[in-house]
Amino acid sequence: MAGPLPLGDPAPADGLLPGQAAEGAADRAFGVYLHVPFCIVRCGYCDFNTYTASELRGARQADYADHAISEVRMSAGVLERSGLPARAASTVFFGGGTPTLLPAGDLVRMLGAVRDEFGLADGAEVTTEANPDSVGPDDLVRLREGGFTRVSFGMQSAVPRVLATLDRTHDPERVPEVVRWARDAGLDVSLDLIYGTPGETLEDWRASLDAALAAEPDHLSAYALIVEDGTKLARQIRRGEVATPDDDLEADMYELADERLDGAGYDWYEVSNWARGREHRSRHNLGYWRGDDWWGVGPGAHSHVGGVRWWNAKHPAAYAERLAAGVSPAVGRETLDVATRETERVLLQSRIREGLEIASLAEAGRHAVAGLIADGLVDARPALGGRLTLTLRGRLLADAVVRRLLGD
After folding, report:
1. Where is the domain boundary, 259, 290, 321?
2. Strand spans (E) along 225-275
3. What does residue 243 show for φ and ψ, rounded to 5 degrees?
4. pLDDT for the residue 242
5. pLDDT for the residue numbered 243
6. Domain containing 279: what range?
7. 209 within domain boundaries
8. 224 Cβ partners below 8 Å, 6+ apart?
9. Which segments constitute the Radical SAM core domain (predicted)?
10. What is the reported pLDDT for 61?
11. What pLDDT sits at residue 3?
12. How far is CA 141 from CA 78, 116, 137, 149, 154, in A?
């Protein structure tokens, strides 16, 4: 299970949002995230809010779709009573955990509730995450028939011993098979990779990139391993059982990924994400980076509407109890002030290829741009047109770029 929820103010029992949330809402896209918090085993590096069967303590996986549907129905009423305009969901994302541990029919029912309560925009993107060993061809067909458009498989690595270090249970040989099944079903396909696992070499990482590219997905994500406090991996490193990830090696791995992916026709559009053409970019994740609105459904799920952020009760049993009592599952929230919203805007939008309008930066940030160009961190050509876009070196040092843009 993940660490404690963030500090914040108590959320009201009715879930109603302050007036700030409605300001400018008609001009912002709206997405829905549905968290499915179930896993067969807990990966040693994971600090997401997930639960194995032995940790459910009074909650039943078989009941979960009905609980999530209850929150979807409640959320539509909360937004309406809070004065927000009706907006169809432009994206829907099922994450976890492993959403596909639920029957495909349950996921389709949950999507149906979103459609019934909010509507789906024309061409809406509907994604589910999946482990390669959690779906078969019939499941993928059922999802496509039910309105899903995209599946994101957690490949992580093609090297068995690297997967073992991460406690991943799937056979890497299954990845091309599930990609083919998804394509046959008519779904777009993304593969998620992790680099920097203790003991992983540059050649291991090259093998994983080659295997992922051989499957010809539409989209690839490559994330550096982060060792989170409280995880099994953090304890193993502290005890000296595995090595601490090497920052220099991780930088070499990122550069190799960008080189290989660019050579195979994938364009980077966010620091850790590449796609074969704009049409295959993850629009849901772009909504996060652009500061759009989303409602997060499920235990521990976070939501954001107009600078108001809130989060649900973490344990599935506590979450279900609140819904059964007719109160909001949200247990805490914060209303971001102007300075915090600006910091988050710069932090998030600087990560995407379309970048930031330089004119939108505060004076200190605008004055920093010339130095960032001179240091090879910002691309000079788009900067001449008024937009700040990171170079490859800038992507490797994105946090340092943000600090300079904010005048820190």
Report:
1. 290
2. 267-270, 273-275
3. -80, 150
4. 83
5. 83
6. 9-290
7. yes
8. 194, 195, 196, 245, 250, 253, 254, 272
9. 24-267
10. 94
11. 60
12. 34, 22, 6, 11, 19
DSSP state of 87: -
Based on the domain organization, do 268 and 400 belong to the same domain? no
* Residue 1, pLDDT score: 45
For 378, which DSSP code? B
* 3-class DSSP state of 74: helix
pLDDT of residue 236: 87
Query: Is the dihedral angle over the CA atoms 133, 138, 140, 143 positive or is it negative?
Result: negative
Describe the crossing of helices 64-81 and 316-324 by its angle, rounded to 10 degrees: 60
Cis bond before residue 97 (omega within 30° of 0): yes
Tokens describing residue 312: 């649900």
Pairing of strands 89-96, 30-36: parallel
Three-state DSSP state, 168: coil
pTM comes to: 0.95
Looking at the fold, whether 271 and 396 belong to one and the same domain comes out as: no
CATH number, residue 405: 1.10.10
User: Which strand (E) or helix (H) includes residue 362?
Assistant: none
Number of structural domains the chain divides into: 2
- Chain-centroid distance, C-alpha 36: 13
Taking residue 318's Cβ as centre, other Cβ atoms within 10 Å add up to 17
Domain membership of residue 276 (yes or no) is yes
Task: Give pLDDT < 50 ranges for the chain.
Answer: 1
Question: What does the pLDDT read at residue 369?
Answer: 98
Residue 259 lies in a domain: yes
Contacts of 17 (CB under 8 A, 6+ apart): 78, 79, 82, 84, 305, 306, 308
Please answer whether residues 89 and 79 qualify as being in contact, where contact means their C-beta atoms are separated by less than 8 angstroms. no
CATH number of the structural domain spanning residue 265: 3.30.750.200
